[in-house]
Amino acid sequence: MSLSNKLTLDKVDVKGKRVVMRIKAAIPSIQHCIDHGAKSVVLMSHLGRPDGVPMPEKYSLAPVAEELKALMKREIIFLKNCVGSEVESACADPAPGTVILLENLRFHVEEEGKGKDAAGNKVKADAAHVEAFRASLSKLGDIYVNDAFGTAHRAHSSMVGVNLPQRASGFLMKKELDYFAKALENPERPFLAILGGAKVKDKIQLISNMLDKVNEMIIGGGMAFTFLKVLNNMSIGTSLYDEEGAKIVKDLMAKAEKNGVTITLPVDFTTADKFDENANTGQASVSTGIPDGWMGLDCGPESIKLFVEAVGRAKQIVWNGPVGVFEWDKFSKGTKAVMDKVVEVTGKGCITIIGGGDTATCCAKWDTEDKVSHVSTGGGASLELLEGKVLPGVDALSSL
User: Fold this and answer.
1) Is 358 annotated as a binding residue?
2) b/e string for 119-150 if b means 16 or more Cβ within 10 A?
3) Whether residue 246 sits in one domain with residue 164
4) Any binding-site annotation on 296?
5) 398 lies in some domain
6) pLDDT value at residue 25
7) Which pLDDT value is given to residue 119?
């Protein structure tokens, strides 16, 4: 799946056309369509996890319509459903320049293909009903635009089932694809991956795929303890240990060696006597080990030095997962030091891409979203791309 050869909104003539758009944070894409004479822009989105049961009191998009109205300073028509004859007729021939927001797609089990019934039992959507749902969505426009990168790893009806001749990425989706294409198809070098998070087994595919792409890799966060226990026979106290992931550590290190990738693991730690914001803290190193009853919750000063040096060598960085429990100040020093250095090298021309999820939360916490090259809006979607997977929502777009 090439990321760089997909049809984009700026290459589509929207004049006089009805544009049906899957959105997350898409105001520039909406505005572009209006400015270029689109007859209508029909917006579809989801909120929460109603699992195919209408819950308007909890998950309605009606408040979004009000917010959109304020942001765009124009009338927004809100429809109380997203499919069916009433919706189809409302979208059939609207006044030029109309913006319509549909109700939450996930009020229908056909959007995700599965959900729960009113009693909470799991249900699967009927194939014929899914077809009808997709056919109804496809009647709402002439051109399909997908600007919901955060849902691109889901083969949901609104992502892959709107059957229109032109299926383009919106500007937000385009920005995501451009940055990830740069990272995965044509990176600047030296290329560094910073990988954190808790469990090795959750990141095996990520580590393995990135070992084919990068020159250097920092492995931090909770999963570092599994590596250190296997490789150095380090005593790790009650730190995170991933039994399953441990089985593959040596294979991953062998692959790194074969590919000439430099791996940097932490060498010292800030420890805690319990998993608590107000825990007593201590220091430990790989050679001393972590005492029984204690756990490592951040990397120590020597590790920070090594990590910061690796960041300083890079011309391109992908960062997925914090290197400590950054939510608590006592254990945020490692992640904050890496973030500060990432911001510094960005200013000097290094391309820095922050995978979504927790690492994006770090950027929000320290107000660095505008100080790195790109913060992804999709946690799961960016992770799957970096793992080398095909994203259904991207695959479904028209190719150039």
Assistant:
1) yes
2) eeeeeebeeeebeebbebbebbbbbbbbbbbb
3) no
4) yes
5) no
6) 66
7) 87
